Amino acid sequence: MTHVDPKTEGATPAAGSYAAKTRAWIQANLTDELRTDRCLDPGATLQQKIDFEAAQHIGGLTGIMWPKDYGGHGLTVREHLEANREIGLSPMPNAVNSIGKELAGPIIMAVGREDQKRDLLPKILKMEHIWCQGFSEPGAGSDLAGLRTRAEKTADGWKVNGQKIWTSGASKSQRCLLLARSGKPEDRHKGLMLFAVPMDSPGIDVREITSIDGARSFCEVFFNDVIVDDANMLGSPDEGWAAATRVLSIERATNRMYRSWRFQSEIDHLVMGCQSDNRTYKILRGYRRELAQCRIDVELLKGHVEALVDDLLDGKEIGPRGSFPKLFWSEAHQRFAQMAYEIVSRFPADSNQALRDLKARMEHIYLTGRAETIYAGTTEIQLDIIAKRILKLKKAA
């Protein structure tokens, strides 16, 4: 997320003013249908969420650090952090186009041609293009160097064949950030390429997967002789590995900064909801030690995020340190989700609407949280990165 020079791009608002602006916008625009602390039936439609996300950009909540030339607001990571605090403290829905804004966008700015930047980046912020990420494969998972999807140069362009798995949002996306191999699987880090593939290209077959919470966001995507022209290649033919690892360091460290404060808001909702009824308050009191540990986890996670922001403002690279907040958040949040699920599972059958809303939210957090130690790199991958690249440990004999 270092694609804007904080000292030269745009005028920086006074400290705290961007948070106030964000808070006011959320209060004026977040409807009951969109709130994650309500269990309305029906809730918001996909189109309502897309429209809400497009409005967020106009309101200054997204594209904060992107250069103005590409549709952004040209501010710094400090304003990005201020906005994310307010987003996290509110019951806003998760972004529909997080892959586009948090992964594809930074990569296009880092390695894309000028014509690609001017064409693709504004469409991401305007929600004209929703993106998915074609990295993981059935036989490789988080080991990106083991992927086997091939890109072969032909007279018509690059012919792509292979399969991707856990491709979140592929069925509603217009573009795929695809990592493919031009060489042999044994080459590992060499010969990897990145493409911005139009999802309506002939030969792409998207199959939705129903996840444990009943959603159909996860997909597997098959590429059968899909032709991708050179205009949709991002960077040079051998730049894929460096670009992909840069993407993942961004994803693990600074994307979705709001998570720390969303975690806090979830704890607060659980505590305040249970305190509203003597019966549920008695249940809550049995988890005092666990709740205290959760609040400690939140403060530690905030510290990780704020330290990274300070380093970014000082022009420092994040590198493998991005694994720390990703690892800590996913493990701590799963512990909270387990505790919260246990608590709400003991709610009386005649609970009021507010407690039913709370129960529905915590059940959803528990179910979706099962994947948090897998996506953006598994816990095992994060530990391996920390051991090898930070602690410099040698492999056991």
Give a concise summary.
Residues 132-226 form the Acyl-CoA oxidase/dehydrogenase middle domain. Helix content is 46%, strand content 12%.
Notes on the protein architecture:
With 397 residues, this protein is of the alpha+beta class. The chain has 3 domains: 17-96, no CATH class; 131-238, Butyryl-CoA Dehydrogenase, subunit A, domain 2, CATH 2.40.110.10; 258-390, Butyryl-CoA Dehydrogenase, subunit A, domain 3 (Up-down Bundle). The chain contains 12 helices and 8 strands. The protein has helices at 17-29, 46-59, 77-89, 98-111, 114-125, 240-253, 259-275, 278-285, 288-313, 323-344, 353-369, 379-390, and strands at residues 131-134, 150-154, 157-164, 175-181, 192-198, 204-208, 219-228, 233-234. Strands 1-4-5-8 form a 4-stranded mixed β-sheet. Strands 2-3-7-6 form a 4-stranded antiparallel β-sheet, with no helix packed on it. The longest helix is centred in the last third of the chain and has 26 residues, at 288-313. It starts with 16 loop residues before the first helix and ends in a 7-residue tail after the last helix. Residues 1-10 have low confidence and may be disordered.
